[in-house]
Amino acid sequence: MRDQEPAPGHPERRLTTKETAESLGVKPDTVYAYVSRGQLSSRREPGGRGSTFDAKEVEALARRNRRESSGSSGSGGELSVRTRITLIEKDRYYFRGVDATELAARHSYEEIAEWLWTGELRPGITFTAPKAAVSVARRAVDALPEHTGPTDRLRVAAIAAATADPLRFDLSENAVLGTARILIPTLVAALPPVRRAHRDAGPLAHRLWARLSGHPADEASLRVLDTALGLLVDHDLAASTLAVRVAASARAHPYAAVSSGLGVLEGPLHGAASGLAHRLLLDVLDQGDAAPVIADELRAGRRIPGLGHRLYPGEDPRARALFALLKEIPGAGPALAAARDIVATTARHTPLHANVDLALAVLTVSSGMPSTAGETVFAVARTAGWIAHALEEYGERPLRMRPNGHYVGPKPPQPLPE
């Protein structure tokens, strides 16, 4: 179908949905996603069967997509990716313009995830997984060696769950949302329970607790865990999130994209950092004083875990929110005092604030959880953000996450190796 001719009084040229999709290099479904995000305006012509779009507006969006996905921020050559999910500024962070700490204080993890994906707040929503997905994921995880870490378990669970989903290659928005709502509870259900008495029902934080701690869950502790999940849903383009977007740019299905994020998350500088803070806290509690423990860390040339964050010159807002709630947990007093001692002792050398890893460590230590528990909380929480970023990336030009290599090797032609 050819471009529609301008009507009298309407000088703009109109494009059909198909023509608009071809101009932008996306699927027709993505065109309507642009409309819902306010990036394009559409109009249904009298007597017409479909929507039409202003050709100039489409071309402007296409130019913007090409410019903003070129891989250069224009300052320092760092990769820059357009996103509408998280903003970090002035020691605060926002999900779609809403203060993330206030959101986590008022809503459950599942409510935040659903709102982040759809823009719709559904009070009381819980995510449940089909028995078939849970069964195949559990079998795969149970086959792993006993010493396997939580991130490896989650990655295997995600891959196993993908094999049970014949619709995993459907990247339409509704299909991806359906995958998201079953993938997260499947990951939790696939983890081996610490306590025998558990149910795979109710809020996700309750189900996750039984896989992290042998202690009975009190309301204050569950509230901290659920708030931690909500606070950690997303944090802009962290390394794991960038990996997810690269996978989604290549049109990997959501399970594979999440698996990419889990692979990066396992690094000691990312999701596993809370485990280092957990062990530091235990050492301080054992010694009864942070000074000798901090001295040993510095003597070994190690950075003190749980302190400082490059995106927050001041206080990490996630830590501030969690520490306020941790005071309500029965038995958390010693771990909180040890955390304060760490901050005060280190401040004599470098004035750094506690970050979210230290707050997670107080939760895991005071709740009798293993040192890897914070990593598990981080991974489960961040899966919701990864899905949000994958959804956003599926709406962009395919394979746009392809920076150019800067070759610095021997100048060709070189002789064949002998």
Give a quick set of tags describing it:
single chain, three-stranded antiparallel β-sheet, 18 helices, 6 strands, 52% helix, globular
State the gist of this model:
This protein is mainly α and 418 residues long. The chain has helices spanning 17-24, 28-36, 55-68, 100-106, 109-118, 131-142, 150-163, 173-190, 204-209, 219-231, 239-249, 254-265, 273-287, 290-299, 317-326, 333-347, 356-366, 373-394, and strands at residues 14-16, 42-44, 51-54, 86-89, 92-95, 98-99.
Describe the secondary-structure layout.
Layout: E1 14-16, H1 17-24, H2 28-36, E2 42-44, E3 51-54, H3 55-68, E4 86-89, E5 92-95, E6 98-99, H4 100-106, H5 109-118, H6 131-142, H7 150-163, H8 173-190, H9 204-209, H10 219-231, H11 239-249, H12 254-265, H13 273-287, H14 290-299, H15 317-326, H16 333-347, H17 356-366, H18 373-394
Antiparallel strand pairs: 1-3, 2-3, 4-5, 5-6
Helix pairs in contact: 4-10, 5-10, 5-18, 6-7, 6-8, 7-8, 7-12, 8-18, 10-15, 10-18, 11-12, 11-18, 12-18, 13-14, 13-16, 13-17, 15-17, 16-17
